[in-house]
Amino acid sequence: SAVISQKPSRDICQRGTSLTIQCQVDSQVTMMFWYRQQPGQSLTLIATANQGSEATYESGFVIDKFPISRPNLTFSTLTVSNMSPEDSSIYLCSVEGNLPSAEQYFGPGTRLTVT
Amino acid sequence: TQLLEQSPQFLSIQEGENLTVYCNSSSVFSSLQWYRQEPGEGPVLLVTVVTGGEVKKLKRLTFQFGDARKDSSLHITAAQPGDTGLYLCAGGGGYQKVTFGTGTKLQVIP
Question: Chain B within 8 Å of A105 (Cβ-Cβ)?
Fold first, then answer.
């Protein structure tokens, strides 16, 4: 298993501004994932971040809106740019367990409210 | 696109009752996971099933993977308030893209 921390845990931001969310893992991992979740609902994958290469974005998410950094094997950031109220959500980072199983370990999430 | 439909979406039961949550898909998955998420926290892995027909028990929780590896169920015996949370199934992973289920919100009333 892995221990994952996220900062900030929550924030209230004004529309048009940007917020950077940090994700720190206690061990080196190849892939990190960023998800979005409306409270009480399922998870939607935003992008997969590999160290040393550009993140791979899912349909409906673009790099200009959600730039991701992956400077080393234990850290990643997700920026939510030019925010609007529709970006209000919970943002979660995760890492994958040992292959071939598909277990994922999640951070506690960042609850973002855009006013 | 692989879809994982969970049923029911919401469940509110009294402490001590039994319940079953279903996770269904038309796709075959190499493995399937169940997670529980409490408010303000990320999902926490409960179990992984990998073999068709597999049954795993975790105290009062029983997980089953369908023979064709397209569906799964979670059965809770004698539910307790501590079981309250959002239950998510997820299929795939490893070399297969992970798909999360639609979620089942469980409330156990003392």
Answer: yes
Q: What number is the average pLDDT over the span B91-99?
A: 76
Contacts of A111 in chain B (CB under 8 A): 40
- Asked if A40 lies within 8 A of B86 by C-beta distance, the reply is yes
Q: Which fold has domain A4-114?
A: Immunoglobulin-like (2.60.40)
Pairwise CB contact (< 8 Å): B31 & A101: yes
- In angstroms, the CA B79 to CA B77 distance is 6
User: Residue B85 forms beta bridges with which residues?
Assistant: B106
Residue B98: closest CA among A48, A39, A73? A48
> What class does CATH assign to B5-109?
mainly beta
The residues in B 12-51 lying below 8 A from A, measured between CB atoms, are: 30-31, 33, 39-45, 48, 50
A residues 42-101 closer than 8 Å to B (CB): 42-43, 45, 92, 94, 96, 99-101
Q: Per-domain residue ranges for chain B?
A: 5-109
Q: Comparing C-alpha atoms, which of B98, B20, B31 is closest to residue A42?
A: B98
Q: What percent of chain A has pLDDT over 90?
A: 81
Q: Does B10 touch chain A (CB under 8 A)?
A: no
Domain ranges of chain A: 4-114
* pLDDT for residue A101: 66
Type and span of the H or E element at B46: strand B44-49
* pLDDT tens-place string over residues A20-72: 999 999 999 988 999 999 988 999 999 999 888 889 999 999 999 999 999 99
